[in-house]
Design brief:
About 40% of the residues lie in helices and about 15% in strands. The protein has about 140 residues and is α+β, with helices and mostly antiparallel strands. Inosine-5'-diphosphate binds next to loops.
Length: about 140
Amino acid sequence: MANTLGIIKPDGVRRKLVGRVISKIEQSGLVIRGLKILQLTPERAEKFYAVHEDKPFFHSLVEFMTSGPIVALVIGGHGSIEKWRELMGATDPARAKYNTIRREYATSIEKNVVHGSDSAANAKIEVSFFFREDEILPRE
Ligand code: IDP
Ligand code: MG
């Protein structure tokens, strides 16, 4: 019953998709255990995406992720990591399945509206990147 980190990226906040994304999470049976709105500094965004620092899209990704406010979410519930990745859809919206957030709303492989942790180890690291222990609701 691990938690995972979700982010509604600057494109999603700018385009007023926050409600729709949260609605999909709740309707799927997953639970919101933490929520905040904030804007990343370049230093914080570089740290968050450090695993991609050698990729050609790294600079552009950091610029995009700092271009406006984001919503950070702690998402809990059974199989939250896999379920949230499934709800998001593939990184490239052209390859994402129908009814996924990225298929419905993403405008490019970069501006793809949402982030989700990709493993239990990363979920733990990424949740604690944005949330203190006392900012997360305990499991029922
Ligand atoms: P993920 O978000 O589906 O886990 P990652 O490969 O971890 O995908 O990439 C992190 C983020 O970097 C993506 O969500 C997207 O915003 C951006 N990105 C990934 N691949 C590309 C690319 O080929 N061009 C531009 N941006 C990319
Ligand atoms: Mg990733």
